[in-house]
Amino acid sequence: MNRLAQISAAAAIAITAAACGGSSASSTVTSPSGTVVTETFTGVVGIGGTTVNNFNVTTPGSLSITLVSTSPQTTLTMGLGVGNPGAGGICSFISGGTTTTVAGTTAQLSGTLASSGAYCVAVVDVGNAAGPITYVVTVAHT
Asked: Are 16 and 125 within 8 A, CB to CB?
């Protein structure tokens, strides 16, 4: 069934249901507050090092960060943090905005950002790397 036919069928069902029902209460539909923006960062973390990637949030809302992959060590536990960028390329972590994790397909850090502005995500060797680690991290935010 094409999209127009599906919409027409749904509208006909809704009208029929309304005609048969005994309720006249109205409801309010709230539309989403923002579009999800997904940014992908690739970088290299040296032994004992930290790499910071900056991103901007234009609309306060949800945030999900996923360490997607590390190589050549694919099951390496890394540090992951979110915060605000500071002088000299540092990332000042938000309270509760850090974790240690292995790469995976689901977000390892998530929450809600109360304000728009500049943010950063940091990938950190927590002492497990045998050499430089290439990573991919995604940041999804509204």
From this structure: no
Give the 3-state DSSP-derived string for the chain, with helices as H, strands as E and coil as C.
CCHHHHHHHHHHHHHHHHHHCCCCCCCCCCCCCCCCEEEEEEEEECCCCEEEEEEEECCCEEEEEEEEEEECCCCCCEEEEEEEECHHHCEEEEEEEEEEECCCCCCCEEEEECCCEEEEEEEEECCCCCCCEEEEEEEEEC
pLDDT tens per residue, range 23-50: 344 444 444 457 899 999 999 999 999 9
Q: Which class does domain 37-141 fall in?
A: mainly beta
Domain boundaries, the chain: 37-141
pTM above 0.90, yes or no: no
Instruction: State how far the Cα of 34 lies from the Cα of 60, in Å rounded to an integer.
Output: 9
Pairwise CA distance, residues 15 & 47, whole Å: 65
